From TrEMBL:
Residues 82-148 form the PDZ domain. This is Uncharacterized protein. It comes from the Eukaryota. InterPro entries: GK/Ca_channel_bsu (IPR008145), Guanylate_kin-like_dom (IPR008144), MAGUK (IPR050716), P-loop_NTPase (IPR027417), PDZ (IPR001478), PDZ_sf (IPR036034), SH3-like_dom_sf (IPR036028). The lineage of its organism: Eukaryota, Metazoa, Ecdysozoa, Nematoda, Chromadorea.
Length: 505
């Protein structure tokens, strides 16, 4: 029975409640109110007001009111479907293509999670005949796009011929999550079929591939930037994302179309420098998975940066901060041992012949010659530290990254970059007396070169950087380093997929 109780007199309510109260099962021990208490409660002006509001609201119809179907259906229009879509302010979430031989406008793609997909009424291959009562016959592509994207189109009506062949068993993406190894912007891509639906990305971004049933363009969602993205709460926000001003946060989690591998390669070749492949051997997408820190994998920390930026200083501080946890790598040298030097502590001393053989065997992650003597870091020297349960800290040359970024080492690569020129000068000038003593006094030209080299490193190796530190104030930079390491120790991080597979075997 529905009663409009706001219109009942207290006496009538009491009468109704009295009937109700007699049906209550008092044997359950449930707390009951007396009729008098309930009457007092329900005749309270505030409760009365609430009931009045409720009665007012339920007396209205709030269903979406879509416009009447404006089309006259012909008898032979049996296969035609009329679709009304309430899309609000969001885009339609579908792309169209033109069949130039027939002039047909066909739904080319449905964007995952968009208004069109959620409606369940539009499918890939549907042929559009009319939009909002306007026939698409002889319409130019630009005119159709305008009709579809008109801002006032909060609801949109289609007359369409449904696709005859619904594609079954769509191929699943072989790469589910990827790290982007290059920068991609729709501005530099003249071949994109639907620029409005394109998704720009930067090297180091993590994408989730959602739909890969098109040979040339995948639907992808951008999860964020850097190896810790999508894993953190606000407190744990990565320094990489904070500093990445060029990234528009609004595109995070937006689904868009990105070129497939072969298309990107072609684009890189055609456009030469605009779409910059890091090197011809680099794949544009690297398959990644989450590495759980609870696996307690020892991951060497590699500091990359332009010479003089402060990698040695940060490494020294880190090892001093926790010498039982972190260790440097003892290098090999062919020079003769000096009296105070201890083999295996200051250097591993080896003959030139031996070292040349190891170089040929590719066992050095980096090596060089100075004053006629060979110096180098043997991969085994890193493994030796890891076997002792310590975390190796290296300030390696960027060229060593290909040898180091392997499933054997699973390193955390941190880019140490200089601050802006003014801060760089200010911070180093304060230390100039000490720098003069160590023979590392900087000139203005050195500062400018350091910034240029950092930009170059970012351009060529940015896709390998898991996180970054700006070394302006040294104490602050060291705090950043500790914070980054803590995050990698406590949160899952994106690593190349084969690192996970091999570690499970
Ligand atoms: N933030 C800083 N403020 C002031 N001085 C700094 C800062 N960071 C490093 N330095 C000083 O700059 C000098 C060069 O630093 P460091 O040797 O660590 O650089 P590097 O990146 O290891 O380069 P290289 O490989 O050429 O030695 C050192 O004397 C160091 O103490």
């Amino acid at each position: 029975m529905n009663l409009n109780i706001s219109k009942l007199s207290p006496k009538k309510i009491k009468g109704n409640l009295h009937d109700l109260s007699t049906t209550w099962d008092k044997s359950t021990g449930a707390k009951t109110f007396s009729s008098q208490q309930l009457t007092n409660l329900l005749t309270n002006p505030i409760i009365q007001g609430l009931f009045a509001a409720y009665d007012e609201i339920v007396s209205h119809e709030f269903d979406d009111t879509l416009p009447e179907i404006p089309f006259e259906l012909d008898d032979d229009d049996i296969a035609v479907r009329i679709v009304h879509l309430v899309k609000g302010n969001e885009p339609l979430g579908a792309t169209i293509k033109f069949d130039h031989s027939t002039g047909a406008v066909v739904i080319a793609r449905i964007i995952a999670g968009g208004a069109a997909e959620r409606s369940g009424c539009i499918e890939v291959g549907d042929q559009l005949l009319e939009v909002n009562g306007v026939s698409l016959l002889h319409k130019q592509p630009a005119e159709v796009v305008q009709l579809l994207s008109a801002p006032e189109n909060e609801t949109i009506s289609f007359k369409l011929i449904p696709a005859k062949h619904v594609v079954e068993n769509k191929p699943q993406p072989t790469l589910h999550y990827v790290r982007c190894m290059l920068d991609y912007s729709i501005k530099n891509d003249p071949m994109h079929p639907c620029p409005e639906a394109a998704l720009d990305f930067k090297k180091g971004d993590i994408l989730e591939f959602l739909v890969c049933d098109d040979p040339n363009f995948f639907q992808a969602k951008r999860l964020g930037h850097g190896s810790l993205c999508d894993m953190r709460n606000d407190e744990n926000e990565s320094s990489l994302d904070k500093d990445e001003e060029t990234i528009n946060e609004s595109v995070i989690n937006r689904v868009g179309l990105v070129p497939c591998v072969s298309f990107l390669r072609k684009l890189a070749t055609d456009m030469n420098s605009d779409i910059n492949m890091a090197s011809s051997s680099t794949e544009p997408y690297e398959a990644v998975e989450k590495l759980d820190p609870s696996n307690n994998v020892i991951r060497p920390i590699i500091l990359i940066g332009p010479p003089g930026v402060g990698r040695n200083e940060l490494k020294r501080r880190l090892i001093m901060y926790h010498p039982k946890k972190y260790a440097t790598i003892v290098p090999h040298t062919s020079r003769t041992r000096r009296p105070h030097e201890r083999d295996g502590i200051d250097y591993y001393f080896a003959s030139r012949n031996e070292m040349e053989k190891w170089i040929r065997e590719g066992r050095f992650v980096e090596f060089g010659e100075y004053n006629g003597n060979l110096y180098g870091t043997l991969d085994e020297a890193i493994s030796t530290v890891m076997e002792k349960g310590k975390i190796p800290v290296l300030n390696a040359h960027q060229l060593a990254l290909t040898m180091l970024r392997t499933t054997t080492f699973k390193p955390i690569i941190i880019f140490v970059e200089p601050p802006d020129l003014m801060t760089l000068k200010e911070t180093r000038v304060k230390m100039q007396a000490r720098l003069a003593l160590s023979g590392k006094e900087f000139t203005d030209a050195d500062f400018e070169k350091m910034i240029q080299q950092a930009e170059q490193l970012q351009k060529c190796y940015g896709h390998f950087f898991d996180d970054r530190i700006t070394n302006g104030n040294l104490d602050e930079a060291f705090k950043q380093l500790l914070m980054i390491i803590k995050k990698f120790e406590s949160l899952p991080s994106w690593v190349p997929k084969d690192w996970i597979e091999k570690s499970v075997e």
